[in-house]
Design brief:
heterotrimer, A mainly alpha (91), B mainly alpha (125), C mainly alpha (161), A: 91 residues, C: 161 residues, 3 strands, 12% strand
Chain lengths: 91, 125, 161
């Protein structure tokens, strides 16, 4: 059953990364990366059980922390800045 | 008893996997950035809770494993609204405006977010 | 150091120690002493940042916050089912609205809890809070009507006093 959950998460991660590549706006991409990060945390946790190594949870915990800080950091960087290539982003 | 716990945790894992999958489908089916944010919220809240609770039932009651899963759970639930809010605010500052279903019943977005980009003004769904 | 701030320092030490003990799983003298040093260092840094106050550790909430969380969890499940339904029904089933709502909370903490609870329930996102008006973006008009009903507002208000 861990395998089924892991596969479902894997498919969901692929869909999220697809959205990150497709855009169309910068914020769609950030949202997709955030979603990808949350799912990675869950995926690592499930993988730990699948492989019989619950120590993976430490990595999941650290990844959850890093994911949040990353998103906030990237947003701080872009929040008040109108990108020069708005027209390209909008395509 | 052990079998009962197994069945419950398997059901939770499957359901959680389905929720995460639905959230990922949602960010492809919904039309604009702001509605996609709602789809992402499904994964962040119910999807992760169900999967983590399902895993908690499989720990064999080891204290450290339970504590770690509970910490991950708490952390995701505490940070995801903050991240969503920051993302929505940044998008508004960037000139993006939500597509509205019924513009006649909606209120205005506050003016302090600056002018919207030309193509996202008055965009009805 | 006043009595008030020492109360928050003690609670910070207790929380950090619990996190260390819960996560480490080793209880020999060496690792526990490492833990004590880390806890003291974090408390020192927190004091230098001046974040040891009722904002970082809302002790005044007491046990009421747990009852609120239980209620919020129920709400989250319900609204999740709504959003999942809309995802599978397709984009035609949504009609997003933006609304400005009055909020009755006085303190910053109350406003933050209310705003975050609204964001946490799928289907509604807080776009902005200014003074006592918040701008909410929702997937459908029903969720706005639910918020206008004011049950969540009242429950958060009760946490304040």
């Amino acid at each position: 059953m861990f395998l089924a959950a892991a596969i479902a998460l894997m498919v969901a991660m692929m869909l999220a990364i697809l959205r990150a590549f497709m855009g169309p706006t910068l914020y769609d991409r950030i949202l997709a990366v955030n979603l990808f990060g949350t799912k990675t945390v869950l995926f690592i946790a499930v993988l730990g059980y699948l492989m019989g190594r619950p120590e993976f949870l430490d990595i999941a915990l650290v990844y959850a922390l890093i994911n949040f800080i990353t998103v906030i950091g990237v947003l701080r960087f872009f929040e008040y800045k109108r990108t020069v290539d708005d027209s390209k982003e909008e395509a | 008893m052990a079998i009962f716990l197994d069945v419950v945790s398997w059901a939770l894992l499957i359901l959680g996997g389905f929720m995460c999958f639905s959230g990922a489908v949602g960010i492809h089916r919904f039309p604009d950035f702001f509605s996609r944010m709602h789809a992402a919220g499904v994964t962040d809240t119910l999807g992760s809770s169900l999967i983590l609770i399902g895993l908690m039932l499989q720990t064999g009651w080891q204290a450290t494993v339970l504590v770690k899963l509970a910490l991950i759970f708490l952390f995701i639930l505490l940070t995801s609204p903050t991240a969503s809010h920051a993302l929505a605010k940044a998008a508004l500052h960037g000139g993006l405006r939500p597509k509205l279903g019924k513009p006649e019943v909606s209120d205005e977005i506050p003016e302090k977010f600056g002018k919207p980009r030309s193509e996202s003004v008055n965009n009805q769904l | 150091m006043t009595i008030k701030s020492s109360r928050y320092t003690i609670s910070l030490i207790v929380v950090l120690s619990l996190i260390w003990i819960g996560n480490s799983g080793f209880y020999n003298a060496m690792l526990l002493s490492f833990g004590a040093v880390s806890v003291l260092f974090v408390v020192f840094v927190a004091h230098r940042l001046e974040i040891v106050d009722e904002e970082s550790q809302p002790l005044q909430l007491g046990r009421r916050i747990f009852a609120f969380w239980m209620w919020l969890l129920k709400e989250i499940v319900q609204s999740n089912i709504q959003v999942i339904k809309r995802i599978w029904l397709g984009p035609k089933s949504i009609s997003p609205v933006v609304m400005q709502l009055k909020m009755s909370q006085q303190t910053d903490m109350g406003k933050t809890i209310y705003g975050n609870s609204v964001t946490l329930t799928p289907g509604t996102v807080t776009l902005d809070i200014e003074d006592d008006v918040m701008t909410v973006y929702a997937l459908s008009y029903d969720s706005i009507q639910y918020l206008q009903g004011g049950e969540m507002d009242r429950r958060v208000k009760r946490l304040e006093d």
